User: What shape does this take?
Amino acid sequence: MKHLNNIWAVAKRECKILYVNRIYFYSMVVFPLLAMIFFTTLMDDGIPQEMPVGVVDLDNTTLTRALGRKLDGFQNSRVIARYPSVAEARKAMQENEIYGFLYLPKGTTDKLLASRRPTITFFYSQTSLTAGSMVMKDLKTTATLAAMGVGQATMRAKGLTDRQMATLLQPIRLDLHQVVNPWGNYNMYLSTVFVPGVMMLFMFLISAYSLGMELKFGRGKEWLGMADNNMVVAILGKYLPQAFVFSSIIFFYEFYIYGILHFPHEGDMWDMLLLMVLQVFSSIGFGIFIFGLMPSLRMSMSICSLWAVLSFSLAGSAFPMMGMDASLQAITWLFPLRHYYMLYQITVFNGYPLIDAWFHLVALIAFTLTPWFVLSKVKNAMLNYVYIP
Amino acid sequence: MSIFRKLLCWLDDATYVWRQELKHVFRDEGVLMFCIVVPLGYPLLYSWIYNNETVHEVPVVVVDQSRSQLSRQFIRMCDASPDVKVACYAVDLDDAKSLVSRQVVKGIYYIPEDFATRLNRMEQGTISVYCDMALMLTYKAIYQTALSVTTQMGVAIKRSVSGNYTARDDLVSTSPLQIEEVAVFNPAGGYGSSVIPAVLMLIIQQTLALGVGMAAGTSRERSRYSDLIPINRCYSSVGRIICGKSMCYLMIYAVMSTYLAVVVPRMFNYIHMAPLSSLVVLMIPYLLACVFFAQTVCCLVHYRENVILLMVFISMILMFLSGVSWPQSSIPSYWQGVSWLFPSTFGIRAYIRLNSMGATLADVSFELMCLWILVVFYFAMACIVYAVEMSLSKRHTVERLEVLRKKRAVRLQLKKKAG
Assistant: This one.
């Protein structure tokens, strides 16, 4: 009971600190929400649409013009210009006007009608992978459809039925199932990792920052005094209000993406809540642990920020972990965001059983418990260290 | 005093500020870390992460219910492709699904019972592809491999049933139109080659802002009234301070940005087409804009650590605003507007086009112009915020002087009384 009272007292003190220093409000509420709004509005289209492409049509017949129109009709591409030569089109790419272009050389139609197998070429830039692959898809489909169209005309002339033609044009059909995210929507794919990543970044930073500020303003003794020099009580009391604020923000985020934006999810609410709790406590645990390792405000915050920035890459959501070197694959275990991402995609996104993500669940719990190892160091820092600017 | 002497005096003061700032930088381990260690180390780390550039041998599971020569050919061809590896065979879809759930495989190829029968009956056969959409790159590998294998098998089937007489007939009937695909600028579609140039440029701006912000925070904390500008004859005008401080950071970042923009791409063999002269023309306005931007931002910071809270998360946002991860043409106009406030947006775009796409300076003239505008804008902003800071610190000094004077007067009076 005494401990509970102490925790309550420390928590009340912490609430006051959070209220007085405005930076807490910004980093715990404003910035995370800003990141949430940024990522979800940036990729609101889901997949990039109407990306500028060009056509170099040196043949200029009804057939080649129809190809240009067909390309324009696709959802992801918009033909913004026709260029007189490949060199001009390449220059347009270098000037950032188009992402790719279709090249129809002179004599395409003539050769096609004479069965002389003309070549048409499409060029696309891969400097932005998303844009490149989307534009590539449309350019390729246009070209393939053109080839199919010719075959179809020949077959129809020979008197084949529609079903026969379909079989001959495409003997094996692919039946693609993009499980859970059938649109290939990038918003649902990236926002669900990057926004929690930004929130984790702030949880790391704020948990190290709030400990460091005690040291900086020499309030450490007062803080420990309120907890009767019991570190567990002191830490629990200090971080309960923060955990509460962060949980509310994450709860709001989940309500926003699942309730309002209707992101797909196979897992139920309990999976989400479990993930939320683990995310908050593992991140706070990690922040305290880093501060315990280096009880200096500046160093611990620097390490936390560098760690958090790296975790966006090492989470393996954009570039998969299996593509990395083996030693890096092991290093990814040290990043809470990696485990968060795995747990998210297995239980919440795909709705698979929790047991299949047990390793990541255990890892997040382990991060939550890491402060245990540094309790005495933090205590020592609070009682004996002097802040050096 | 002649103009010449005034100028000399001005230069003298500016160089004094320059030297002081340099001393601060090298004494402060926080600043040192962000201005020296991070720019040196992070490119190496990121290059290591994206070292393999593409994903190969994505594991898939096959549910082969057809068990025919054709279905086995499909599986063999998929397995032989560079991007996909057939890791397991499953009895049915549920079995396969549990393998996906356990992260053993990333996708399922399902070949139904009537696959070969239908093909032999000259009907369309179907293969189902199920992809785990948690990873876009593996989805693409799995789908595109299946697509190219079925197309290839389709051509063979078409030939065998078309009843043509000559090889030429076969060619014309299966592909009347040849299609050539050319991926330009980053032909392998490497992930690192597309992302790292942007990261390199972003590191310059972000570490500068963090370093300058930390240094500013330190000088505030050292001062009695948390003023940014110390009271000193040499710190008597805005121009001197900004020039002196900028020279210090320009000096450090001339080295760092050469390393980032020139050395790193050559070390890891990223595409590097830009001649050195174009890079110099780009880096001068970029560095200037970043230095003045950093100085403007640092005045917003009262505690030195707050700059970390502010700048680090913006990196993620700036990365997406540069148009590398998400195409520039699809960025909503209001975010485009926001992105114009940051030098990194133009720096990244111009650098990628110069270095990865072989553009000339004329092709990036718009970005260069915007960078110069930002140089002027942030220089003006830096002047304004420094002028405000200076008047603040002057006021504090005057107040302090008053207090001291009053104290002395009181002390003198007390002395008189005692005497």
Q: What stands out?
A: Residues 58-174 of chain B form a domain with the abc type-2 transporter like fold fold (CATH 3.40.1710.10).
